[in-house]
Amino acid sequence: MEGIGNYRFEIKLSADKLEAGIILKVDETELDNIVVMESDVLKALQAQKVSFGIKHEVVQAICTTPANFANVFVTIAAGSPHVVGEDGYVEYPYLKTIEAGTGPKELEDGRVDFYNVTSIPNVVKGQLLAKKIPAGQGQPGKTVTGEPIAPKAGKEVILKPGKNVVQNPERTMIYAAMDGQVSFTDQDKMNVFPVFEVNGDVDFGVGNIDFVGTVVIRGNVLNGFRVKASGDIRVLGSVEGAELDAGGSIEIKSGIVAQDKGSIVAGHDIRTSFIQNANVTAANQIIVTQSIMFSNVRAGKQIICKGAKGIIIGGVLQAGEKIGARIFGNNSATPTVLEVGVKPELRQELASLQKELQDVYENLRKTDQGLGVLNQILQVTGELPPEKRVMQIKLTNTRLVLEKESKALESRKKDVEAELLGEGPAAVDAYHVMYPGIKMTFGKLVHFIKHEYARTRFMVIDGEISSTTLL
């Protein structure tokens, strides 16, 4: 506090020193007698080490009409906050050539072919597939007292090469190591797989398919048949009560009518127009344009049904992050179960990894103990007997294997922990309406819908399932 004549200044700094305020302290009886000089204001600021971001127009206003500022707090200096850099991201140059060729094509007789609009993302050996764009470093800031505020860099992104791809030495680009089709598998790893095409239905004329690559079916997959692929599976028709298992994504153009038979499992995403009486599981997300009816559907992250109909009725749906649909349920209050916010398979895997690592560390300890004893014998006697020499070689080889195993387990454990930490607030979004009959579960919290909700988001707030209106 700085006293000058018949008034004094009180300077207040915010906790982060990004703002300074001033109060002109004066007795009400002295309002007509005070004269404030600019040098007095600056001297008061200097006494509190305020030197940056001073609002000179405020200083002048205080000096010109001090009575207007008597005993009133006013901001007189503002610092410059640091700027957080933009997060890094990945560009996919190969998609530009694919997108340019999408859309229905006109045939020679003038008709339009609407049946072959699905674009197959084929690439050639040496083609650039992904490019890492580094995170921005941000901009430094400064407090009102002139102290620098360090910038904060954005979050870096990590390229995840899979099979049949190569990286440049800097690990900022991914190239195709062979001709084939791009496929994203578990943990968003980028792969290139060869393509196997079926020009009709998967029926008795074709039989079951098990292919180390990507499978494209230009017809339907009929009841009882199996299609397994290490890459993606793309079906331009429909899927009946069949078994589809893809390491990457599954795209079904027409939809799934399974009659409670078979299963659809993908290591990444599943996209289709409708799901009816089916068992469907995706490690990442499931995108449906029309409807999900009386099915068991599970996604590691999101289940979204947001097309023109966008309706979910019956069955059990589980998602780690969000379930969203235009309409949930119907006027008949058909029982429908929605479970969000838990990733039990990841938590189970983490517990298993921790147990495996513990066993590996214990075996490493015993191996090192054995090698230590042999080294002591060697130091004392100058050589090892033949049987001890054989034991030393075996223990050394065992240690190399255990070290390699521990590194692989530690890497996977780190990935799982990062994915669990990355869990955001789980939500259920009803973009149009949610009817009664819905059982909603967030972890251990359960909520039954007993009346209609319009344009509503449900999520856990302060330990309870709460609802807010969607804009």
From TrEMBL:
InterPro entries: FapA, FapA_b_solenoid, FapA_N. Pfam families: FapA, FapA_N. It comes from the Bacteria. Residues 9-186 form the Flagellar Assembly Protein A N-terminal region domain. This is Polymerase. It comes from Brevibacillus reuszeri.
